[in-house]
């Protein structure tokens, strides 16, 4: 697949600098997310006990993830009994190859696809297009991003960074339609194009929000109805789902569906919540003739093997942590350079794509804890960011940084030497601009984006002693009067 022009860390810094300086765009994103917060707070307050609901959801996901083999096999048994087919893909290549081979074997010409982050993860659209298959995204936001040639900006709101006039200009350029500022008219333009895509498609591809083990069904939640058409009209349906999406029982959805809606969009319940359990059965008038579920591992079992961070697999992809993250609000979704943005993406991407290349994401955090506080399934996100930082340092220690920390440790264990060093700190502040012009500045990566702090002329210890002397003198003078 297409590689970044620079290593991920360098590209991240370039994109972050550019995006954070785009004040109008940042303001638009912040405004959209402030509206979300209002809606979420209002809907969350309707839960009898939101805290207990989070705890219950975390318990269910803990059970599912810690017995993943059992529940996935149970799903497969129930699903295949109704004529469905299950393929276990250990990596992205296996998943792509299975879908490409299926499309070739069945003579597929055109494909319609509803929102599937797993598809973005394995670069499925690009692989299909390279083989000559027409692929149309049916989610409105995803369709707009497809026309722009960009990845989704956000889990739930793929084009939240775009203004109406930008979307209108895009439709005018790509679809030849007249300019309009009306959201309804823009939606109807896309609707006319997408309706034709549903009718012509030979294959429909979707993701899945939940895998229900005890019924052998997948659950898809949406607000536009496009996933229902993607599943129901083409002759072949393929659901590409991460193995962590499993829940043990159908009854668990009574908690997770309203929780996903509340945390994701601030709704009581999304517009469409559908269950799919296999291909069209005898006597049924609609549905696909073939139904394939592709279970995607792609290093999820590597994260599963880490007991300290395993709970990151509890994520239900609601996007709530992105919505409250001060870093995401300032640098935007595309800056992360990966499918899963924001705090949870910064936790799981190093596991999925390699810690050495993606460790910088875990450093792009204020560690304010807002992500952990808002997560509906109680993932300890901000501590996992610290865990990633620690693991990266242990995996490939930076020689210069190690030397600095050893010197710091040596100094802090010797009070007399520390006091002497504080007396020379102001001199260090004066000399730093001279040092910074050389190639041996030990804090260059820090001062590239910050001003070197000026050391006070007098240490706190010296100032406190002077204060004590002044107090003593004042007390003595007061006693002689």
Write the layout of secondary structure elements.
Elements: H1 8-20, H2 23-44, H3 50-66, H4 68-81, E1 85-89, H5 92-105, E2 110-113, H6 117-121, H7 124-130, E3 134-137, H8 140-148, H9 164-175, H10 183-200, E4 203-206, E5 210-212, E6 217-222, H11 226-232, E7 236-242, E8 246-247, H12 253-265, E9 272-276, E10 290-296, H13 300-304, H14 320-324, H15 326-331, H16 342-353, H17 355-358, H18 360-363, H19 370-374, H20 381-395, H21 399-412, H22 415-436, H23 444-447, H24 460-480
Parallel strand pairs: 1-10, 2-3, 2-4, 4-7, 5-8, 7-10
Antiparallel strand pairs: 5-6, 6-9
Explain what this protein looks like in three dimensions.
The chain is α/β, with parallel strands linked by helices and 481 residues long. Among the domains are: 47-298, 3-Layer(aba) Sandwich (Rossmann fold), CATH 3.40.50; 422-480, no CATH class. It contains 24 helices and 10 strands. It has helices at 8-20, 23-44, 50-66, 68-81, 92-105, 117-121, 124-130, 140-148, 164-175, 183-200, 226-232, 253-265, 300-304, 320-324, 326-331, 342-353, 355-358, 360-363, 370-374, 381-395, 399-412, 415-436, 444-447, 460-480; strands spanning 85-89, 110-113, 134-137, 203-206, 210-212, 217-222, 236-242, 246-247, 272-276, 290-296. A 6-stranded parallel sheet has the order 1-10-7-4-2-3, with helices on both faces. Strands 8-5-6-9 form a 4-stranded mixed sheet. The radius of gyration is 27 Å and the shape is elongated.
